[in-house]
Amino acid sequence: MDELIPLSDATLDRLPAAVGRPRYDRRALRPGIVHIGLGNFHRAHQAWYLHRLMQAGQALNWAIVGAGVRPADTIQRDRLLAQDCLTTLISLDPGGSSAEVIGPMIDFLPVEEDNAALIRQMADPAIRIVALTVTEGGYYRTPTGEALDTAHPDIRHDAENPYRPRTAFGAMVAALALRRRAGLGAFTAMSCDNLQGNGAILRRVVVSLARLSDPGLADWIEAEASFPNSMVDCIVPATGPKEIALARSLGIDDRSPVTHESFRQWVIEDDFCAGRPDWDRAGAIFSDRVHDWEAMKIRLLNASHQLLANAGEILGVETIAACMNDADIAGFFRNVVSTEIAPHVAPVPGMTPAAYIELVARRFANPAIIDTTRRVAFDGASRHPGFLLPVLRDALAAGTQIEGLALAEALWCRMCAGTREDGSPIPDNDPNWASLQIAALAARDRPAAWLEQSQIYGDLGADGRFADSFGRWLTLLWTQGCRATLHAYGANGGDRAAVLRAGR
C-alpha cells in the first residue's frame, strides 16, 4: 500500500475503497450508553451491532461514551481519542479478510482515581444504559460466587467512601444516588461478560454494595434499575504488532485495530428500564431463555477453550487453531466436550449441543484467527470456576463421567507450575500467579495441595471421587508427560482401572 492514512474523522473519505466506513454523520450522534471496559471484545461485538443500526439511520441517540477505572485504561483512552474514537475491525476468515471502520463511540472519559467524570456522565439523564466488559473475575464475588466479597479492600473503600469510589460498581452506585436525588429514573446496567446469569450477578453486586452505605438507595436500585442477562459470543484475539501491521497493510494507520472471526452472537433478556436500541434489527436475539443460551456457550465454548489452552501451553503449542491441528489436544477436546460436558447442556431453539460442538470446532480451527493459547489460558483462577467447575459439580451430582474434567483441572495445575515440557518458562499468566504456582509445585508431591485452594474449589476438594481422579491424572502428567497422559485418556475413555495400569 503506497499511502498510509492516519485514522480520523477527517480522513474517512480517503480510506481505500474496499474498507467500509460510517455512512452516518458522526457529528449528529448523541450519547445514550456508557461502556466501562473498552477492550477489543466490546468494539468487535456490542459496538459493531450499534454501528449496523447507525448505518441504517437508526439509534443515532444511543452513541457510546467509553470509560475505564484502571490506570492502564489511560493508554487505550489516548489511542482512541487520537483517532476520534474510530476503530478498524478486520474480519478474519479462511476464505479471506475484510475490513470496516466503525464509529458509534464518540468520547472516552478521563480515567480518574475517584471516578468523578464517570459518575457525572452516568448521572446524566441522557445515559440510559451502562454496560460493562470487566472480565469474569472483575465482579468482587466470594469464592462460591453467591455474594459480594465485602472483605475486599476495594469494596470496603467504596462502602466507606461512596462518592469517591475505586470500582466501576461503586461509581454506578454513586451515579444512581445522584439520579435518585435529582428525581431522575435509573439506568439499565448491562453486563457483557462471560458469566452465567451475568445480569443477576451484576444486580447482586451493585445492590449489595449500595446497601453497605445506604440501604434506602439499595432498595430504590432494586426496584427501579434493570439488569438484563445476556450471552455474548465472538472470538476476538488480542491486538499486537501483527494486528497493527495488518491494518497498515490495508492502508490504515490505526493505533488499536481489532481482528475478529466473522461469527457473532448476542442473546439478550428484554429488560430495559429506560429504553434500548433495536439491536435485534442488527442480528441480536431478544429471548426469555437467555440462561439456556448462556449455558450452551459457556460450557461448550468457554470451558472447552480451557481444555485446549492449558494442554497447549504445557506442550508449547502457541495458538488455538494449532491446538485443533494437534491430534492429541484436539482428541482430548472432542472427547471431553462430547461425552462429559454436552450431557449437561440443554438445546436451544435451532441448535442442539452436538451441532454447537461442530460449530465451535470449526471456529477454533480457523487458521486466520491468531488466538494465542496464552490469551485463552489467562486468569484461569476466574475461568475454571466460571466455566468448568459448574459442569463438574453437575456431573458429580448426576453420577456421570468426570475423568476428562478432572484431567482438565490437572492440566491447569501442571501449567501453573510455570514450565513447559521442553523446559521453557511459562510467564506469569494470572492475577494470582504467585499463589497458584506455589500450590502447583506443592501438588507435584501432594495433589491435594492444589484442591485445598478453597477460593477456587470450595468444597469440591473434599469430594473423594474428584480428588482421587485429579490426583491420578496429575501424577501421570508429572511421571509420563502430557502427551502420554492425553493418550491414556483417549485410549481408555477415562476408564479408572486402565488409567491406573497406564501410570504404572
Automatic annotation (TrEMBL):
Keyword Repressor part of the UniProt annotation: no
InterPro entries, A to Z: 6-PGluconate_DH-like_C_sf, 6PGD_dom2, Mannitol_DH, Mannitol_DH/Oxidoreductase, Mannitol_DH_C, Mannitol_DH_N, NAD(P)-bd_dom_sf
Keyword list, A-Z: Oxidoreductase
Mannitol dehydrogenase N-terminal domain span: 32-280
Coiled coil stretches, renumbered: none
Pfam families: Mannitol_dh, Mannitol_dh_C
Matches recorded under Gene3D superfamilies: N-(1-d-carboxylethyl)-l-norvaline Dehydrogenase, domain 2, NAD(P)-binding Rossmann-like Domain
GO molecular function, one term: oxidoreductase activity, acting on the CH-OH group of donors, NAD or NADP as acceptor
Keyword Aminoacyl-tRNA synthetase in annotation: no
Residue span, Mannitol dehydrogenase C-terminal domain: 290-470
Name of the protein this chain belongs to: Mannitol dehydrogenase
